[in-house]
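Per-residue structure
===
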Amino acid sequence: MNIFGVTGWKNAGKTGLMERLVTEITARGLTVSTLKHAHHSFDVDHPGKDSHRHRIAGAAQVLLASRTRWALMTELRDTPEPPLTDLLARLDPVDLILVEGYKRDTHPKIEAHRAAAGNPLIAPTDPTIRAIATDTPLTLDRPQFHLDDTAAIADFILGHLGLPPAR
């Protein structure tokens, strides 16, 4: 399984970079899935809908399916959040899984960094960060790319993982 992360502090440009990378890499003929960590409670369900009613009634899992997609919702209730490895194991096989967040896990990552956000870099103390995508030149011992140079960032990620740059 080929995994590469996009990490950084809030407002660093992670989600935009993820979106552009998925577009770029799938356009090259590779299959991509994503996994995003949320630091807060979230809901993909809507109050009043049947699936929401099932979940609120106490169902441990609710699988919602249609002819265009399906979604499996699992209620953790009072159990701990599953580790990244357990979540990755639930995904179907693809060429690449891009992971947004999960700063503390050990998979290789690129750090998104915007100077205007005013946050410190994570890279100086984290060897899992292999490169920086930034809007300002930095003095570091890692490759740097402009935050908007999606093609170069995709080339770096695919090369790092030994995947073909295009099919």
Q: What stands out?
A: The two ends are 18 Å apart (CA to CA). The chain has a mean pLDDT of 92. Helices lie at 14-27, 50-57, 84-88, 150-161.
